[in-house]
Amino acid sequence: MKLKCVRVRIGSATVVLWLAALAILPATPAAAAILQATVTGGTVAGTVDPEHEIASFKGIPFAAPPVGGLRWKAPQPVVAWKGIKKADAFADSCPQEQEKSIRGSEDCLYLNIWTGARTRHETRPVMVWIYGGGFNGGASSLPAYDGTHFAREGVVFVSIAYRVGVLGFLAHPELSRESGNGSGAYGLQDQIAALQWVTANIREFGGDPDRVTIFGQSAGGISVSVLTAAPSARGLFRYAISESGGAFLQPPRLVEYEGPPLQSLEYAQSMGQRFLQSLNVTDLAQARQISTQKLLEAATQSPWNWWVVVDGNVLPGPNFDLYQHGRFIDTPILIGFNSDDRHGDPAPRDNVRWFEDYVAHNYTQCPSLDRSILAAYPHRTDTQAAQAYRDLFVDTWYGGNTWTWARLHSRYGRSSTYIYYFDIRTPETPYGADHGAEVPDRMRTVAQYYDCVRSKM
């Protein structure tokens, strides 16, 4: 896998990107001919974009609907259908809170495909997109995730869904006993089930199952890092790309309010018990009968925090430990972060004293660590202090994860390791590229992205 460093100048801004050359085939000028495909479960019919000559298949099921008795269970095999299923519309997102209301459907395990292949005998590289959303939101149907650009460049592009929030990451002792393999990893199991579906079916769309790249941003990027340490994901992808994600810094959460990115099974099960008790639920049968609306309304309130669980099965241990023992999928990785990767949030305060107090309170793990940090981040003025907070936040969460992952992969693996740094400064973002800014640029969906943003203003 060759990589190339490309420097692009946009106005007064400089964009530095590491671009992966994934043996992409040139787009063909002929119209895509794959309009139907026989996949696990039956036959699906897609649609063709006449402008770009790209076929798209939306809303293909890769698992049975995780509803009723399948709530909080590993994804089950697809339910077969008769005739030809139209794959011309996105499925509902998995249930989540959006704009202070609960939206989506538990029947949400579907994926979408864009391809420019003319026959199923082509062997185009495949890229599988995993959305972000803090493991509590996100959807594959967002305009910014349209796969047309990748398909035009010769890639078979796939976007997948996975359960989020309480439906994707609830752990409980009774659930662990029921499965015999821990609990709380349903969202990750959905991602693995989708990759298994890709391996079994992507040839029908002109894709090569031996050249699959998984990539994602934020929670999607963390998911990529976790999948590289998940034994059940072995053999399902050849390359991995993580944007502003990773799970390599803190140990798994053991007590309330300790920071992410991972939760221990003990902590997650304890939280799950307290959550079901707050709903006056005595067993799983009752919990599975609660309406989606009621469940989500309770689960999206403080103090509940649904996140990736080190369940001992899907994820046998913390990423940091697994990598140190060589227990990871040794595949080429491309990882990175943005120059102002703070979700667009301003500093809580912007003065020197506040910054010094912030460092003293939050960085007490090692003797004199706070003094070292204050020496490394200039903060003599209030303006400098505000910038120091931004830089420290980005370095701690995104830069730290990226560099730790890169060092571990380079030391204990044999495959190539590449890091990118995304930096665009505009009048609206004078401090740099904020969280997710690279997604529409890389997807070439900038226009759709800003149309969506303006519609919510």
Question: What would you note in describing this structure?
Answer:
Residues 1-30 and 447-457 have low confidence and may be disordered. This protein is 31% helix and 21% strand. It has a single domain (32-347, 437-455), classed as Alpha/Beta hydrolase fold, catalytic domain (Rossmann fold, 3-Layer(aba) Sandwich). It has helices at 148-152, 165-169, 173-179, 186-201, 219-227, 265-278, 284-287, 292-299, 319-324, 352-362, 369-376, 382-412, 438-443, 446-455; strands at residues 2-10, 13-21, 36-39, 42-45, 47-49, 54-61, 84-86, 96-98, 101-103, 110-115, 124-130, 156-160, 207-217, 239-243, 262-264, 308-310, 333-338, 417-422. The chain has 457 residues and is α/β, with parallel strands linked by helices. A hairpin with a 2-residue loop joins strand 3 (36-39) and strand 4 (42-45). Helix 10 (352-362) packs antiparallel against helix 11. The strands form five sheets. It has a nine-stranded mixed β-sheet. Strands 3-4-7 form a three-stranded mixed β-sheet, with no helix packed on it.
Find the CATH superfamily: Alpha/Beta hydrolase fold, catalytic domain
**Taking strands numbered 1, 2, ... along the chain, how are they ordered across the largest sheet?**
5-6-10-12-11-13-14-17-18
Overall radius of gyration? 22 Å
The average pLDDT value, as a whole number, equals 88
Helix content: 25-40%
Per-chain topology:
Layout: E1 2-10, E2 13-21, E3 36-39, E4 42-45, E5 47-49, E6 54-61, E7 84-86, E8 96-98, E9 101-103, E10 110-115, E11 124-130, H1 148-152, E12 156-160, H2 165-169, H3 173-179, H4 186-201, E13 207-217, H5 219-227, E14 239-243, E15 262-264, H6 265-278, H7 284-287, H8 292-299, E16 308-310, H9 319-324, E17 333-338, H10 352-362, H11 369-376, H12 382-412, E18 417-422, H13 438-443, H14 446-455
Parallel strand pairs: 4-7, 11-12, 11-13, 13-14, 14-17, 15-16, 17-18
Antiparallel strand pairs: 1-2, 3-4, 5-6, 6-10, 8-9, 10-12
